[in-house]
Amino acid sequence: MIVAWLLLFIPISLVLAYWVHASPVWIFACGAVAIFALADWIRRATDSLANRAGSSIGGLVTISFGSTAELILALFVLAPATRMSSKRRLPVR
């Protein structure tokens, strides 16, 4: 039940980032709590689906979606680096 309340940190982190322009430390802390809540939400959803689908399909679903939160986090972390590297391209001779 506490994890459901932690989902409130998703809009809180967005408000801190885009409207309040808070310190990056506060934005990161709220985002980390939001990722924790989303990861638990995805885990419970895959466990529920695995229980209904059976052991074979359930194992496949758990393996497929088990690291979704980490994948999303990695994409958001790498996206700014990709934008920065595209600005530093050297001229072609």
Number of helices: 5
**C-alpha-based Rg, rounded:** 18 Å
Instruction: Determine the mean pLDDT.
Output: 79
Order of helices and strands: HHHHH
- Helix vs. strand class: mainly alpha
CA-based shape: elongated
Largest sheet: none
Q: What is the helix fraction of residues, given as a range?
A: over 70%
Q: Uncertain spans, ≥5 residues at pLDDT below 50?
A: none
Percent of residues in beta strands?
A: under 5%
- How far apart are the first and last residues' alpha carbons, in Å? 61 Å
Number of strands: 0
Describe the structure in your own words.
This protein is mostly helical and 93 residues long. The protein has helices at residues 2-6, 9-20, 24-53, 55-65, 68-87. The radius of gyration is 18 Å and the shape is elongated. The chain contains five helices and no strands. The model has no long low-confidence stretch (mean pLDDT 79). The chain starts with a helix and ends in a 6-residue tail after the last helix. Helix 2 (9-20) packs antiparallel against helix 3 (24-53) and helix 3 (24-53) crosses helix 5.
Q: Main attributes?
A:
mainly alpha; 93 residues; 5 helices; 84% helix; 0% strand
In short:
Helices cover 84% and strands 0% of the residues.
Show the helix and strand layout.
Layout (H helix, E strand, L loop, with lengths): L1 H5 L2 H12 L3 H30 L1 H11 L2 H20 L6
